Amino acid sequence: PLLEILRIGAYQILFLDKIPHSAAVNQAVEQAKDNGRAKAAGLVNAVLRQLSRNKVHLPRIPDQDALHSLSIRYSHPKWLVKRLQAILGPETEACLAADNAPAPLTIQVNPLKAAAEELTAELEASGVIVRPHPWVSGCLELDHVGDLTALEPFRMGKFLVQDPAARLVSQIAGVEPGMRVLDVCAAPGGKSFSAAFAMEDQGEILACDLHENKLKRIREGAERLGLACIQTTAADGRGFRPEWEARFDVVLVDAPCSGFGIIRKKPDVRYKKPDDLFALPVIQRAILDNAARYVRPGGYAGVLHLHDPAGGERGCIRQLPGRAPGLLPHALLPVRTGGGDRGPGDSVAPPPRHRRLLHLPHDAELRNDP
């Protein structure tokens, strides 16, 4: 308990600027007393006062072992740092640092209810700072939001909270009005909603997930956004449904994953054990193989959105063509802003070599991943 009390006090002194150092020290001293360590109260007082006086002159973290140093400095398990370093090389530290920074709040404009300029003006009138997203059209970055659900534009369904990389899925898939779309593992519904926007709410989207409570969230979101083309059904992505075979123009897959790509939003994800992850690629491959059977001839499948910069899950994409006869990898190009939702600046073109888009937490842009 004494060590944990000292760690809490040190954290307040080093990282929480609104708490006076004296208050952090006094609180720690009282915690020591309350936890039966009254005799150590003087030690706690002395250590934390010394820390506060030397806050800007702390000793360096030993760097003889690069993995250990990065693990300590950025609070990532050593095994995860090692895995990232093998994949990212010199970019590893930038990725780890980004994991500890707040993720920007990104929204997608609902074009069925508002234009970007109109929504920007409404949000700014409520004191929100709004910026166009630098590389995905139709998306805005927000600051000073407060309770987002209390904003009138949110209640009116004029926008959807969604990461920009997720927004790219419907653009890359090329969904259009009148299409028939299947969204496997759809909850909480973001990619279904984005596809419905691109389809102008014309066509059919079948959003699937295992549990009714998740499907309820999708229906509630669709109602808020004013979307009528989305239907929901409970389904296991690994179980074949004969009535769906070769029926859909586009099949979207967001298979269960490690979540290592969203540590900024869920910091505790980093403390998963490697043994907990062994089954994931097997599940993902089963879902992808099954989902590929639902694509009509000439359709588009396997827009895969996985949160794993550590690389294991990307292997599923590489194995997919061989495991799903007739399904070929689609060549991609990062979507660029500047031309509107369907303008020349937002092309998805087929360069000869690239098959995947990789977006890492520290990236300002998407990169091609051969």
| Average pLDDT number | 84
Main β-sheet, spatial strand arrangement: 7-6-5-8-9
Could you say which overall geometry the principal axes of the C-alpha atoms support? globular
Q: So what's the oligomer here?
A: single chain
Order of helices and strands: HHHHHHEHEEHEHEHEHEEHEHEE
Helix content: 25-40%
* Distance between the ends: 50 Å
**How many DSSP-defined strands?**
11
Please give the largest β-sheet.
Answer: 5 strands, parallel
Q: What percentage of amino acids are in beta strands?
A: 5-15%
Low-confidence stretches: 315-326, 331-354
Written description of the protein model:
The radius of gyration is 24 Å and the shape is globular. 38% of the residues lie in helices and 15% in strands. Mean pLDDT is 84; it is low at 315-326 and 331-354. With 370 residues, the protein is of the alpha/beta class. The protein has helices at 2-15, 21-34, 41-53, 66-74, 78-88, 92-99, 116-125, 152-155, 164-173, 190-198, 212-225, 280-292, 314-323, and strands at 105-109, 129-132, 139-143, 159-161, 180-184, 204-209, 230-234, 248-253, 295-304, 356-358, 367-369. It has a 5-stranded parallel beta sheet with strand order 7-6-5-8-9, with helices on both faces. It has a 4-stranded antiparallel beta sheet with strand order 2-3-1-4, sandwiched between helices. The protein contains 13 helices and 11 strands.
Brief descriptors of the model:
globular, alpha/beta, 370 residues, four-stranded antiparallel β-sheet
